[in-house]
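Async update (no meeting this week)

Hi team, since we skipped the sync, here's where things stand on the single-chain job. The sequence we agreed to prioritize is pasted below, unchanged from the tracker. I ran it this morning and attached the output directly underneath so nobody has to dig for it. Comments welcome in thread, and please keep replies under the output.
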Amino acid sequence: MAAIIPSLSTIRGMTAGERRFGRRLEALLEDDYTVWYDVPVGRQRRYPDFIILHPSRGLLFLEVKDWKLATLKKISKDRVTLQTHNGLDVVSNPLEQARQYAQTTVNVLKADPQLRQPEGRYQGRLCCPYGYGVVLTNITRQQWNKALPEDHQELVLPAHRVICKDEMTDSVDAEAFQSRLWGMFEYRFGEKLSLPQIDRVRWHLFPEVRINAPQQDLFGGPDEETDDSPETTSNVSQALVPEIVRVMDIQQELLAKSLGDGHRVIHGVAGSGKTLILGYRCLHLSQATSKPILVLCFNITLAARLRVFMAERGVDEQVQVYHFHEWCGLQLKTYHVDTQEGDRAHWERQVTSVIAGVEKGDIPRAQYGALMIDEGHDFEPEWLKLVVQMIDPDTNSLLLLYDDAQSIYTRQQLKFPLSSAGIQARGRTTILKLNYRNTREILTFAYDFAKEYLQAQDADDDHVPLIQPEIAGASGPMPVYRSFNNTNDEYQYIVRCVEKWRSGGKPLSSIAIIYAHHYQGAALKSALEQAGIPSAWLKSSTHKKAYNPTEEKVTLLTRQSSKGLEFDTVVLSGIGGLRDGEDDMAKEIRLLYVGMTRAKQQLLVTSGGANQFTERFQQLTQDAA
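Output:
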């Protein structure tokens, strides 16, 4: 079964014929086909009805028309005259539309050297074939042949470029259906598209699925030329194409583009791409709502990283990102509401003051066109009840993302029905089990260390149980554990490692040192300074808010502050300084799991003392060997 993006069940506004044809594509094409419906292409953002990609066949562009023969009055190579309720209407010939869509896309893709045929007869052309055609969902082949003589068809809509009503029925044979599709190609050449090449095609066509790349306008700015000529697209594209591209997995893209309206909940393991999906959702909704979009999380550092994420995608003015308590403080300040007095902590009184302010009408509801909540596992039910009221009921758009395995605080951690907080989650929850962030070795190491504290739990009426992550990442070096007699030796070893990595060309911004206690952070900061290694120590709320992940510095932070972040290389330090009493084990192991799963490629665990955790790491290392 082919993957249709977005999912057909979530698409509104399709014509009856488009939906019927989409179902035939879904049912009659194999798993290695990918189909996109109504995606913008080119500077002028034209929308072909369907784009079909197959690794061996190539790219096919289709226009679908629900015309009836009685309404079709005249057709030429460029124009079609239709009888409508409002009289005669002249529109473009759909075959010419499909041809332009195909040519626009090919010009963009062909500008990428890695997508050009390197040699032979077709040297310099796109490395895969392409075709285009038209689907007439309400006209049979017999009707079409009777209405248009063969010589006239060849001029305006050649028979091999048309699929008719009787060629896309429920009973049609899959092989015959596919033959109709691929008969629209004029030629075949080249090798099967590789997975990297398919990713590059998607990178060009859909900038929103790019990972760690600025969302520049691939087709130029609004003040530039608006044609889609080969010269223009080639010059623009070559300036933007990196040697290595990273994009969402097909399943991530399918989910991101198929979320639909209303309340949506995503329960994903660490590294499953939850933040990427949140980013895409913000991109999509920023164009669909006039009110601002609110993104909330619990971690101050993650909020700072998300702000950079939104700025990279050019939606930072429309999308407002805060950690929850920062947002509460801003609400009180904006609407001149005093913080309640009492014995509780200031941040707790801020929250209750906002809740009271909303109830009294001093703070307005429905301020935002959409609400996104990352780290939902760290939100209390009262917080969720509060922020759900901030959504405009006309849009009612909510996305909640969470992972119970990263619940590291002592609150309820979503151990309550989401419906009790006003979240309509029943039947609207998606589970992401695949971890794309970590290598196979890192994820296995982290999960084996913590699995007895991460066992699946029973679900209530709309709560999703804890799930075991599945590995989707590539292989890499085994995580390394090193123990020392004292912390000074431990810190000096870490510094030597960082120096070695830097001399080998690894950017400092790709390295994080994660510690447990403030005194460890201070000692590590001092050791790095003495070695002349720039570092960003996220020791306070002020430093966390100002965090810039693009600065060429080693990031120094706690396990709690690392939640939601990722780095190529992670040093998880200070294991010997952890409290290992029975009451501390579950919390500390969850924190260590969070720290380890921040590493994408390389993980080093260090200790300058001995306790139950160091024994656990030593045993794990021996077992792995």
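Quick observations from my side:
The chain has a mean pLDDT of 87.
The first strand starts at residue 3 and ends at 5.
Reply here if anything looks off.
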